Amino acid sequence: MQDYWPYIVIIIAGWLATDLWRWLGVLAGNRLQEGSEALNWVRAVATALVMAVTAKLVVFPTGTLEASPLWLRLAAAGLGFAAFLLAGQRVLVGVAVPLAILGAGLLWL
């Protein structure tokens, strides 16, 4: 049992660090009006965080993407976003088009 003690501590600490805040967010979120400034701010922050992670993955990739040139990754992201908008904001298009561009670009290079 002593060998598992560090893992138990990590699991409990991980749960406290994430789930506690999620439950508090649910409790606080139930009291917010749909069009409130606070909810708009939360959405803006969430969107900014997702875009920051996406930009980091495009500009500083790891793994197989690390071998691809920056111009190819930027072109795939830009054209994928344009296709996403032109297709009426369909997520499938926004995922498939950049993947196809990256795949074709990596095969071509």
The SSE string, one letter per element, is: HHHH
Q: Characterize the overall form.
A: flat
Largest sheet composition: none
Q: First CA to last CA: what distance?
A: 53 Å
- Helix count equals 4
Helical content class? over 70%
**Uncertain ranges:** none
Q: Count the beta strands.
A: 0
Average pLDDT, rounded to a whole number, is: 90
Radius of gyration: 20 Å
- Determine the structural class based on helices, strands and strand pairing: mainly alpha
- Portion of residues in beta strands equals under 5%
Short description:
The chain is mostly helical. Helix content is 76%, strand content 0%.
Q: How does this model look, in words?
A:
The chain has helices spanning 5-29, 37-59, 70-86, 91-108. The protein has a domain at 62-109. The longest helix has 25 residues, at 5-29. It is built from four helices and no strands. It is mainly alpha-helical and 109 residues long. Helix content is 76%, strand content 0%. Helix 3 (70-86) packs antiparallel against helix 4.
